[in-house]
Amino acid sequence: MKTNSVIVLRKKWEPLKALLMSDLHWDNPHCDRALLKKDLEAAKAGGHDIFINGDFFCAMQGKYDGRRSKSEIRPEHNSSHYLDLLVSTAIEWFAPYAHSIRLIGYGNHETSILRHCETDLIERFVSGINLLTGSNIQVGGYGGWIKYRFDRDDNALAGGKSYSIKYFHGAGGGGPVTRGAINFNRMATMVEGADAIWMGHVHESTEITYTMEYLSAKAVVHLRDVLMIRTPSYKEEYQDGSKGWHVERMAPPKPLGARWIELVPRRSKSATGMDTISAHTYKTDTNG
User: Fold this and answer.
1) Which of the given ranges, 25-39, 51-65, 151-165, has the highest pLDDT on average?
2) Tens-digit pLDDT profile for residues 213-244
3) What are the tens digits of pLDDT across the range 1-36?
4) Residue 174 scores a pLDDT above 90
5) 3-class DSSP assignment, residue 33
6) 166, 194 in Cβ contact below 8 A?
């Protein structure tokens, strides 16, 4: 299956809501599957798109992995066919949500498997679930673009407005003080034209607004907001804080869940003005 690092979705001129997820670590015993299921069900029930930005799998319990631990593997995966079982059980579990998922990208856990075991868990999962359900999930990259195109009416030539999200799974450790915010500064120097920059990886949940100045083709100065979005994880590693690798390295408790993004296209009230799309994100509800 071809990697599709740029995905373009055409939508009507109306408000839109989508679920931004990363770091599911679905196969890890500490994945909060009840919360994950709740968020997936909410997206499915509302007809909302789902995007997954890497580390769908944890995949750390194979004999090739020095971090493996008998206490960190789910019983249904404890077999000599470990990687095969990760894929087949994931296809079964996620099948009810396949038609809502638009894109799944790679995280460092999947690329590690690709390097060390020469098998592509994301491609295998997506191919299998698309075949089983007739869905059209796209395989993304470690980084890529999601572009929503809002058309004024059914005729695309009538004009519209686009909203572009640059996604990148993430890099580095995040840091207990900055919580990964420094990487937003780095991305801002190397990415042009994004309305939002979205990362995961460090299991934090934030939205920061960067306001940029630019000069239009008509030599008019404009300001535009760029959302810097960080999505959390579904793997709860801290537990009661008494033991474990996460605790021993003095890592703090981390938020769980994902983030919703809401996009609202707005038509200009003047003939000389520009159409806009307002955007904001908020964390999914972790209450019962």
Assistant:
1) 25-39
2) 999 888 999 899 999 999 999 999 867 766 67
3) 677 899 999 999 999 999 999 999 999 999 999 999
4) no
5) helix
6) yes
Nearest by Cα to 111 from 64, 160, 74, 59? 59
Question: Which of 3, 18, 103, 108 minimizes the C-alpha distance to 55?
Answer: 108
Alpha-carbon distances, residue 248 vs 162, 198, 234, 238 (angstroms):
46, 29, 20, 10
Q: Residue 107: which region, alpha, beta or left (left: phi > 0; alpha: psi -120 to 50)?
A: beta
Question: Helix, strand, or coil here: 208?
Answer: strand
CATH class of this structure's domain 6-283: alpha beta
- Domain ranges in the chain are 6-283
Q: What's the pTM value of the predicted model, to 2 decimals?
A: 0.93
- Furthest C-alpha separation in the chain: 67
- Angle (CA) 96-98-101 rounded to 5° is 130
Contact 96, 132 (CB under 8 A): no
User: Token pair for residue 155?
Assistant: 């005729």
Instruction: Tell me which residue has tokens 């789910």.
Output: 74
Query: How many Cα neighbours within 13 Å face the side chain of 262?
Result: 9
DSSP class of 53: E
Give the C-alpha separation, 257 to 265, whole Å: 27
The answer to whether the beta carbons of residues 164 and 145 sit under 8 Å apart is yes
Distance (Å, rounded) from C-alpha 146 to C-alpha 149? Answer: 10
Task: Answer whether residue 100 shows pLDDT above 90.
Answer: yes
Full DSSP string of 135-180: --PEE--SEEEEEEEEESSS-GGG-EEEEEEEEE---S---TTTTT
Helix, strand or coil for residue 97? helix
